[in-house]
Amino acid sequence: MIKVGIVGGTGYTGVELLRLLARHPEVELVAITSRSEAGLPVADLYPSLRGHVDLAFTVPDTDLLASCDVVFFATPHNVAMQTVPELLQRGTRIIDLSADFRIRDAELWSRWYGEPHACPDVLAQAVYGLPELNRERIRDAQLVACAGCYPTSVQLGFMPLVEAGLVDTQRLIASSASGVSGAGRQAKVDNLLTEAADSFKAYGVAGHRHLPEIEQGLGDMAGAPVQLTFTPHLVPMIRGIHSTLYAQLTQDVSLDALQRRFEERFADEPFVDVLPPGTHPQTRWVKGSNVCRLALHRPQGRDTVVVLAVIDNLVKGASGQAVQNMNIMFGLPETAGLDVIALLP
Amino acid sequence: MIKVGIVGGTGYTGVELLRLLARHPEVELVAITSRSEAGLPVADLYPSLRGHVDLAFTVPDTDLLASCDVVFFATPHNVAMQTVPELLQRGTRIIDLSADFRIRDAELWSRWYGEPHACPDVLAQAVYGLPELNRERIRDAQLVACAGCYPTSVQLGFMPLVEAGLVDTQRLIASSASGVSGAGRQAKVDNLLTEAADSFKAYGVAGHRHLPEIEQGLGDMAGAPVQLTFTPHLVPMIRGIHSTLYAQLTQDVSLDALQRRFEERFADEPFVDVLPPGTHPQTRWVKGSNVCRLALHRPQGRDTVVVLAVIDNLVKGASGQAVQNMNIMFGLPETAGLDVIALLP
Amino acid sequence: MIKVGIVGGTGYTGVELLRLLARHPEVELVAITSRSEAGLPVADLYPSLRGHVDLAFTVPDTDLLASCDVVFFATPHNVAMQTVPELLQRGTRIIDLSADFRIRDAELWSRWYGEPHACPDVLAQAVYGLPELNRERIRDAQLVACAGCYPTSVQLGFMPLVEAGLVDTQRLIASSASGVSGAGRQAKVDNLLTEAADSFKAYGVAGHRHLPEIEQGLGDMAGAPVQLTFTPHLVPMIRGIHSTLYAQLTQDVSLDALQRRFEERFADEPFVDVLPPGTHPQTRWVKGSNVCRLALHRPQGRDTVVVLAVIDNLVKGASGQAVQNMNIMFGLPETAGLDVIALLP
Amino acid sequence: MIKVGIVGGTGYTGVELLRLLARHPEVELVAITSRSEAGLPVADLYPSLRGHVDLAFTVPDTDLLASCDVVFFATPHNVAMQTVPELLQRGTRIIDLSADFRIRDAELWSRWYGEPHACPDVLAQAVYGLPELNRERIRDAQLVACAGCYPTSVQLGFMPLVEAGLVDTQRLIASSASGVSGAGRQAKVDNLLTEAADSFKAYGVAGHRHLPEIEQGLGDMAGAPVQLTFTPHLVPMIRGIHSTLYAQLTQDVSLDALQRRFEERFADEPFVDVLPPGTHPQTRWVKGSNVCRLALHRPQGRDTVVVLAVIDNLVKGASGQAVQNMNIMFGLPETAGLDVIALLP
Hints:
The structure is a homotetramer.
Chain A: E1 2-7, H1 12-21, E2 27-33, H2 42-45, H3 62-66, E3 70-73, H4 80-89, E4 93-96, H5 106-113, E5 126-129, H6 131-139, E6 143-146, H7 149-163, E7 172-178, H8 193-196, E8 201-202, H9 210-222, E9 228-234, E10 241-248, H10 255-265, E11 272-274, E12 292-297, E13 304-311, H11 315-329
Parallel strand pairs in A: 1-2, 1-3, 3-4, 4-6, 5-6, 7-9, 11-12
Antiparallel strand pairs in A: 7-10, 8-9, 10-13, 12-13
């Protein structure tokens, strides 16, 4: 059994980790920390876990965490980077769900997150935790920085096109839309039901923190810098991300050929599902599951290709992907604990 | 492995059965029928099942169904009763999710459902499929009539009070509220998002078909006829039933004593969770899971006791309960295939 | 033109007052105060008002407020009672949307609101602002305490029954449900879309602050104390209150006779609409409008009568009722500025 | 008073016309037709209109319609074009909310709508009813073809850019999102709350009927054919359209200069509100009102300009725009009957 610790379990990615890990056949939950809720049984905060999780939140205890085989950080940015260096030194493996180690360039990170990076020297050893891109490096990593929610959907959707050099990488557009859980479990007026329900809006159009992360990943695929216009939107729903991706073909490739390329690229991926061309995936098709479902379109046969990609932002976009990374790191079947079927309707 | 057939799998209780049975360790899905969708892969209708269910819908074939160990009917009322008699004769066990065999009195059934019962002689052998009430009889039953969704929540909530004779059974009130999936997957204007979202209404106040079913069940507990005022409401949500139950105490019993009685009554029940007194259960605490969560209140210390009960109408209120009944009928652990944690948020 | 001041305009009842008053033919908006947002144009906080309201929020200025013909308080409880006495002395008329002056008994108020009342001597001159109950007294009142949202729906629904002595007033039950805007525009985790959407719950079952207000009002109608079990619920919608009211008939009265009594009682009321018996009113039928729509049921012909009542909690349950009270106080047509048709769908 | 007839009043654009016209100071409603609901009082179908509209639906009567000053067609496509020629001959003015007369090229219309156009010779006299583009021609038109919902938001958002020749008109992208009311009041499984709520999807990506309409309008502005990639999405909300528009600048123009151009272009428009640059408009800011609110962005200072535009699809996208056209046609103040403030929250 893998001994697991979770730092910062009161948020949505925390409870989602618990939902998945409580049923994982190879995991023993050792500790879940929260300064603010220390002493409170987890199931009192999340009654959905009554009968499934008996732990109570505890104050973070480095010795206890260091004794775990792996520690998940389900914290806001700027928390993990304070503690991770010590845990790494003591040999613990780390899966960070936050943004602290996603961007290799400390200066770039600092510009977008508004503060200096606490351990820029550690960045080099962090492996970007998108299994479809980095599976081999994840296997042996001590520190995995899980890909963000929007970045997962956008990178998976563009991946076969960019890797094959089929599109203009200076004019990429991602029009993405997320459920409100992407904003976390924080008391903010903007995310009240009364403010967010029965309405739709874009946000962060001038610049969202996921932009440099996505451009870094797409740049790796392209082997050269790319330019992306990224516009996130807020959907009055709880979970789910839908990305509508636009790219200009630089070669004349048929929709069928594009489809084959996508199918080949993801043929061995347990959590990427390439739908028949012309399909319109719905976020509810993946609600609660770790799958990314993708579909290709080429409207009017013109040279703009449109990729539609859906994920559950809390699963493939966060906690499920973290478990997938753990499975890879510990040599388990990649689907262990992740055989959850989407809840529909 | 138990060979399972499903009749009428295109509706919401059908897809929910598939979600649960596809992961059930002791089940082999043999057939799923639908006249209208014959030939269509199930996963084309419900893409959430892609990669989990390979079957296609087929035209109902009595020989094939008769060869199953158990056949689930996930059909509208007035379908099962046409086919069940023949399957019973051929020795197949039946779990009917519809209303056809829930009411013992054929004449009463006929009055509420507006047509004669097709096989009144079969009614006597049907066992009402509410495990908390009838577990022993379900074990050996050949035909189980699963309790309805509202009736499950209302009966479980009143059960300890009525069995113990603590309340006036001539003045019971159940103010229940259901998500829209209770109406099934049928194209009706009333259930369009544009009609049902951002609004709330009662319906069927003059008389809902679940009333005689509930009064029959409560009458069995009381050992005498009861009178219930039952007002269902439609909530702009997908899943979930919340019942607010009102009963007049006929004895002076403290809230603590009532609480103990509830806890004792359900101590061995794997799918009934008695919450601390004063709790306000939320339907999302059971979304996707087979649990009924209950809480007791006695407002102002007066003699009206209020019980709050929540279930997922498609799980404990339908398909999950059906699987629980199957587990009992076949001597399996009652929780087999039902260890699903509610999806929250 | 009536000079109007609004204290506390940043909340939902504040913006709703502005929506109605901006189009009121006899009103001149003089000031709208908010300490926290002083200096901010109202339309920056509520862009829906761009082009309709040019005011900016200002710090409260007693002289300016005292110069108004009427001042609305759209504040949380315990704010109005600090300022109202001085304004009364200076001759200003007050319409308070908060709870400060709704309960005549200062000790009772104190017990439910957890603090002493700041001006118990003023309570006697406050007129409870439910026009259908108190129209004549409102006309000449200097201080009107607008009825609360739940209390409006519950009192209007029970009114003809209780006034006529037709029901057992010791066993009244109100199972009410409100949209989330009833909780105001405050950053609370419980009211996030992620917490409140796609779910349903009761709250405050042990005792809600509207209980003593309703019992006071019903007691006035009955001429004797009444007992009510009141259970509010939270609906995943923005606006609307639906009350399902249960009362035991103490006389044998036909549904037709009850219907006639309701129609007669409200025949001259511009904002109470008695629907045909058997109707199931929906909250969206009154969304944005000042109407209360009511319908009567007598399930199974038994002696429990069920009244269904819907209002928009922010209009007839708050700001619309406040404007209706203003119209009465200033001798205007009662419907002035309130001729808004519900927004459907 | 202008005598008004409405053909096809049972749908959402019909009830919305009634909501607006019932309060219009210069309108007398003469007839509202529906074959299927003939005889039914309008307020029985739409109880929100109780007390405001006394008409009943009637079977279409050409003589009665011809006696009106203006007839609105709130019908599905392929209905108006059967009747309009006769009414035109008899001198009646027509405002068609459907798609029948929006596209000047009958062959193009036929290709997208799948049937021959019934009166291609009438197309030439139809004026495209987007006041901001065609106000002068609308004034004297006998037949106005109201702009569609998506087309209104997309054309208004691109208008200043395209008219000024600032962007590459061969690479325009519109990623639009609509509430479910855009699909009308028809019983379709896809639009059930259970199918559309808590989810998000694109649809019609390969080709949506609004594409040729938009390209025609933008082409008129550009003076040459344009190419647009148009991807509509379905949002789990009732009303509202949000368009996110992407265009490549072909000149180096600052965001400030673009902002000024937008402000100048719409300076005299009563129903276009140019927000400060960097604003993220929300659909609820226009819910129930006839305004289009727009905002400009230039992410990362790169050469892709992003315009965000919101409208209420049933008002500025349909019935409100129809009333605006009527006001222009009859020389009334353009805002008559349209002074509705958005309902927020």
